[in-house]
Amino acid sequence: MINILKKRIIPCLDIKDGRVVKGINFLDLVDAGDPVVSARRYNEMGADELVFLDITATKEKRKTLIGLVQKVAKEVFIPLTVGGGIKSISEMNQILRAGADKISVNSAAVKSPSLVSEGARIFGSQCIVGAVDAALQKNKKGWDVYVNGGSKKTSLTLVKWVKELEELGAGEILLTSMNRDGTKEGFDIDMLKAVTDAVNIPVIASGGAGSIEDFIDVFTMTDVDAALAASIFHFGEVDMGKLKQRLAENNIPVRIQESSGCNE
Amino acid sequence: MIGIIDYGAGNLNSISKAFEHIGFKIEIIKKNKDLDRYEALVLPGVGAFYSAMEKLKKNNLVSFINDFVQTGRPLLGVCLGMQLLFEWGYEDKKARGLNLLKGDVVKIKAGLKIPHMGWNELKIIQNDILFNNLRTNPHFYFVHSYKLKNVTNDVIAVTEYGDKIPAVIRRDNIIGLQFHPEKSGENGLKLLKNFGELI
Fold this sequence. Notes:
heterodimer; A: alpha/beta; eight-stranded parallel barrel; disordered C terminus; B: alpha/beta; Rossmann fold; seven-stranded mixed β-sheet
């Protein structure tokens, strides 16, 4: 069957107290810690979607996050996923109403799977992203699921858990390989294959991107729908425009930005 | 001023902000109001067919939309809002739509990942002012599990996902978009601006 749906490239921004942390190095911007500026910039560069990961711990600071989502939604008109410590339907509702399109849940989904099913029932599956952090088992036979930012191992195995997330109503899986995250050695092809074989919802590859070749590999060797990365985009190690050009040259369907900048 | 119809749960923020961004005044409409206030009406895309129709009926918005269309001023349905323009919907249970246009809304053919979610290209069947300043086969962002069953005479652009999916509908002043222009970057803003030209 014909499917020319484009493979998505997604920059991920870590947010703390309403600011982008880890830094973003846009050559022509003095302060790229402003999420609105960063979001606008990535939009101009041709990002297909944005993920904001809130690493703010406290509840009061959540108000800052909601204000930030509102500000971004006012200016940037591409899909926005927000995640990080979201534990309740009412929090989901607030963030979606503020202008986010999807909510990603990770540890909270492991703790109470009904958050996924309830969220999907109320907001629709397309709003709920099941985020999973996983690492290879010691015997290398499979992968274990971790929570709390990868610090705590659970009794769940990866393939079983992603199937359950799909069953609960998650509309998408955001899969991070803890073995590859931050290494720049390339995406975890075996792990991604195991997951795309197991579920029939879109899978976003995360962890390990270091070069344009890594993106070509992940889209030619696996059936993932999107690839996410943080630092290589933030520090300009991989240029989004060039990346998409190279993907297109390798017959990978991507959205090439039709115009650059704001012409309104 | 553009009136944006609020039929309950979901996010009207994005479409409202997009219109504001390109310079239009907007107002959210929850109940049947004086329709002369509005130069154009937008029926956004949130929720499910049956419950959306129930909500519209409850707030006397069905007759409001019908009366508005009679004035000849432009009506824009987005995503579910586009689907509601047709005769019947089959999401959850069979439900009567606004019945402004001929056609039924059915589930996307099985075999591909559902929802159809992501960036896809438009194939323009019939040129229209709505496509001004867009290049050939422009990209738009889709998120939906249901679609207009057939490529009727009112369909002016399609996209491909399994089979042909009606993407842009136009009959006189009634316009429908299966994708989300408010999430389609520059192209989306251009299209909304073109819609604004109809005012």
